[in-house]
Write a structure and sequence with these properties.
With 237 residues, this protein is α/β, with parallel strands linked by helices. The chain contains seven helices and eight strands, in the order βαβαβαββαββααβα. 32% of the residues lie in helices and 19% in strands. Strand 2 (41-47), helix 2 (54-59) and strand 3 form a beta-alpha-beta unit.
């Protein structure tokens, strides 16, 4: 079992990569500010070069999230890079990764940290209904609503992952060369390299927000279309 209280006095580092996330970031930070947990934790917003009010919205939560840090991750484009930059700025032995447009359910931090005391790699389940309505909620097949996604090894979306820093650093974090699917790749590499097994964290639920317009859905589909072949080439053996 790892030491859940790092040398810096912070148990959990929550990393949120952002890029022009002004529309929804406040909702995610508000959900984090409402968390009640006896442990000490920090929130790191890694800004990937936003040109809207993302940074100022994040800064406005300092009073509600005293352990909030906003860091510049604009030197290289990509969510994987922003996640890695945020992780490097974190002080804790446990890392939780979230996205700017989702929202955690109450008790998320406690549930994820409890799971990480016994497992190196954990994931939350996903609620597709709370933040989506009508045809949007059915525009994609729900994944991770009832369990993990299966592949070469089990995997989970990056916005639901928790990992011990030891294992994260051992595999070099997220691969910034991949156009998409770096979360799948990370899950597979950690399990292959360290022998860890990805498990679901009981009681940890993420309210997942789906793309709400046809252009956004199209762009997301195109990105997934690029990521799939890249993963196949890397893992085909």
């Amino acid at each position: 079992m790892p030491n859940s209280f790092s040398q810096h006095g912070v148990s959990v580092s929550v990393v949120i990569p952002t890029y022009n996330g002004a529309t929804y970031l406040g909702e995610q930070l508000g959900a984090l500010a409402a968390e009640r947990w006896n442990g000490t934790w920090e929130v790191i917003v890694a800004d990937n070069g936003s040109t809207d009010r993302t940074r100022s919205i994040a800064e406005s939560f300092r009073a509600r999230l005293p352990q909030l840090t906003v860091v510049d991750a604009s030197d290289r484009k990509g969510q994987a890079h922003a996640r890695n930059v945020g992780a490097r700025h974190g002080q804790a032995d446990m890392l939780l990764f979230l996205d700017q447009d989702d929202a955690i359910e109450t008790g998320y931090i406690a549930a994820m940290s409890a799971a990480l005391t016994d497992h190196a790699l954990v994931a939350a389940t996903m609620d597709y209904q709370s933040l989506n309505s009508g045809s949007i909620a059915t525009s994609r097949r729900p994944s991770q609503a009832d369990g993990l996604v299966q592949g070469v090894y089990a995997w989970a979306y990056g916005s639901t992952l928790g990992i011990r820093r030891l294992e994260f650093d051992e595999v070099g974090g997220f691969d910034e060369r991949l156009p998409c699917g770096e979360d799948i790749d990370l899950c597979w590499r950690v399990q292959q390299s360290t022998g860890a097994v990805l498990v679901t964290a009981p009681g940890a639920v993420l309210r997942y927000r789906m793309r709400d317009s046809l252009p956004q859905l199209f762009r997301q589909g195109m990105l997934y279309g690029r990521g799939g072949p890249a993963l196949f080439r890397r893992w085909r053996s």
